[in-house]
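Protein 1 of 2
SEQ + STRUCT:
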Amino acid sequence: MTTKPTLDAAKFVTEIRQSGLSIYDPIEVGHPNLWIPTPELQTLLDDGLRGISLSGLPLRTRSKVVKENICRVLGYPVPLSFKKCQPRFTGQMFDIYIQKSNNLQVWNEDLSATRRYVLIRISDSDIITRVKVVTGDTLALLDTTGTLTQKYQARCNPSSELSELITTADTSVLAPFVTQSVDLKHVATPINHPMAGELLPIGSVFERLSDLIGRTFADAGSDQERNRGAALHRLVCSALGYSSYQDDGQFPDVRHQLIEVKLQTSPTIDLGLVCPNSIEPLDVPMIQGIQIRHCDVRYAIFYAEISNSVVRLTHLFLTTGEMFFSRFPQFQGKILNAKLQIPLPSNFFDT
């Protein structure tokens, strides 16, 4: 289940238009008025670009027309010419890809965990039908070819202890904003942006999620890994106290609580492009003027066993990104490639 973002996306357009900034002027990630978070960016571009016809346009002209329309939709002045820079929309840190097929091709550069990728679906008659915005770490999880230049992995070795709280304290950045008494059933949804006074401390998260040890769910569907993740995510949302399950496919899974959920049926933890202890800014609005970092995210790692098409949760590990590698040894190594080809799921533009 997905839903619209919780912020007023239109307010960003107004602020950008009044600022006089160009698409190349840098904006601090999380700036409350000028940085457009990924969910709101997707809403603006999907609403603003749908229905535009690119029929009969040469490839270069088509790209220029799309970029001009993106400027207008987001409140930026249209430049006389577009610079050849990476990413193309430097201020909001995103590139655009016009897709008629589900084969995404990224040439001569690495995927970046913090960059946004605007994927624009066009019909056989060259009309824009859907716009999806994802970060590089989300795209990394779709790569089944092993061609990513850099892919972080770690090892999970379960012990006799069924649940482990790796660190009893949140990071120094996040700690001032947590509170014990939060009624998640009434204050928010799992995909809301995190706010001061609505974040459970890591110890409380651990207590609630520990109740899931021993729980089972059916291992059904053709895309088993994706379905397993969704089933676990649903259980996590319920255990935390939310009234509904919602998922928009962005990192971290439970954005409102800054929790990334991982299901392990083997020891190798695939982290994609996100290094848990990274101090890079996370794509969420600032909290009381403070920018949340990747290392502030809480990682809930569930180990499971599968038997007779039933998944049973056997272990839980909870840690901050900052302390992640104190429990899970990191694998080393890189794979180099000039061109990445990432097959998008058949329903990628439908959700």
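Protein 2 of 2
SEQ + STRUCT:
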Amino acid sequence: MAVPKRKVSKARKNTRRSNVWKLSAPAFCKCPQCGELKTPHVVCQNCGYYKGREVVKVEEA
């Protein structure tokens, strides 16, 4: 059996674990209908269109 020769310090242990929790920035694309930024594969919040079709009726305030 493999046995560690020395104790792994808290700093070394935490730096190893810290690389797992990195978050990436969310992706955005331009809506072809209105030009507003939106997340891909999601209905546009501004105009209600998805893949060139109106999916949700959006009332303008």
